Each structure stands twice: as C-alpha cells, then as structure tokens.
Amino acid sequence: MTEMNEARDSAFYGRRKGRPLRDQQAARFDDLYPRLALDLAAPVADAGALFPHAPDEIHLEIGFGGGEHLIHRAVEAPGVGFIGVEPFVNGMAKTLMEIDRRQIGNIRLSDADAVKVLDALPDASLTRISLLYPDPWPKKRHWKRRFVGPDNVARFARVLKPGGEFRFASDIDTYVDWTLRHVRFHPDFEWMARRAADWQAPYPGWPGTRYEAKALREGRTPAYLTFRRL
C-alpha cells in the first residue's frame, strides 16, 4: 500500500449539500447553529470552557452523519461534553433539529474540516475520539484521501489525554486493515483487542447507525477498533 506521509491542512472531499433544507431545518441553522458552533478564528484555549457546565470529559466525533450516535451518547452522558464535526449540511440540519427537540445542552458543533478542528484544540484536551463508518475511498488512487493517516494519527495523539481512546468502526475490511497498520505504527497508541470478540462486538451502549444497518443488509461485517493513548 502507498502511504501518505506529507502533512495536510484539509481532509474533506465530496459534496456539502444534498436535498434542499426544509423551512424548520433552515431556521435551526439561523438561530441554533451560531450558538453551538465552534469559533475556529483562533486556537481554543480551554476546551472545557466551550460548554455551559464543567464537563467530566470531552469527546469528539468526526463525521457524525445524521447524528444518531452523537445524540445518543450526549443524552446517555449529560456530564460529558461532546464536539461533533460534520461538513455535510443535511446531516448537520438533522442533528440540529434533534438537539432542539430534546433540548440537549452538552453538544458543540462544527461544519468545518475536521483537520482544522483538531488543530484548534489544546493538547491533551480530549478523552475520546470517534471516527465511525468514514468514507473508505476504496480505489487505490484515492487512498490518500482516507482520514486515517500518519498526519491525522499524530493529531489524535496530540489532543488525546493519556489513557484516552480512539474508536474506529467500518464495514470495509481494507480500511480496517489500513487503520490497524497506521495507528499501531504510532508509538503513542496501543490496540486494546486481546481476542477476536473485542473487535467484532460493538462498543458498550452502541445505538447502531444507518450506515451500519446498510452494511449488515448488504452482507458486510463491521469491525470496531479501540486504541488507547499511552
């Protein structure tokens, strides 16, 4: 496999918008998103200060899609602060609607490129990073577009606290292998699996996602990888 060793300042490829937003969705972009959006004009000095409460931990989800997992985790753990990154407008709109409906107060959002969000966060500020069913870019000429690579694994190592976790889920076996190789190669990470069941079973409290449901319908088996920051 060809590796991408050069640093990158962007990792987003693809469209940002699908179907036109409904009136209520557009309204949430106007009134709610500005209150929840990260200000990336300058580095974030204190990640805990992004939230109205002093969070027990801060978790980051990169590419949250329709927000099913992000919303579930935020409701499940109200003492934790969650940062969700999603450049796709329709996914962000769906998530904003659900945050408003449930009056969830422990989520902050960004529609910026995830690389820019990672670069803005302070050292050792996160307890968990989740990258769930990312675009696999299966063609060899597109492998350099995969979010997991030496540059972003180094970013994960910088922002995660010692003992923090990087969680990765995918139904594409080549991307699972790719991620294992890249993350295990980094000296600051340890793969937590000790037996096959550890990476074949979903995470505790896993709500499932629409991408996972599609994979299972089409006969693909997901893998759930957990790496610990040393």
UniProtKB/TrEMBL annotation:
The encoding gene: trmB
Enzyme Commission number: 2.1.1.33
Function (record text): Catalyzes the formation of N(7)-methylguanine at position 46 (m7G46) in tRNA.
GO molecular function: tRNA (guanine(46)-N7)-methyltransferase activity
Tagged with keyword Transferase: yes
Protein name as annotated: tRNA (guanine-N(7)-)-methyltransferase
Domain of life: Bacteria
InterPro entries: SAM-dependent_MTases_sf, tRNA_(Gua-N-7)_MeTrfase_Trmb, tRNA_methyltr_TrmB_bact
Pathways per UniProt: tRNA modification; N(7)-methylguanine-tRNA biosynthesis
Organism field: Hartmannibacter diazotrophicus
Keyword Glycosyltransferase attributed: no
Residues annotated for substrate binding in this entry: K139, D171, T209, R210, Y211, E212
Family the entry assigns: Belongs to the class I-like SAM-binding methyltransferase superfamily. TrmB family.
Gene3D superfamilies: Vaccinia Virus protein VP39
GO cellular component: tRNA methyltransferase complex
Keywords: Methyltransferase, S-adenosyl-L-methionine, Transferase, tRNA processing
Principal EC category: transferase
Residues the record lists as binding S-adenosyl-L-methionine: E61, E86, D113, D135
UniProt catalytic activity: guanosine(46) in tRNA + S-adenosyl-L-methionine = N(7)-methylguanosine(46) in tRNA + S-adenosyl-L-homocysteine
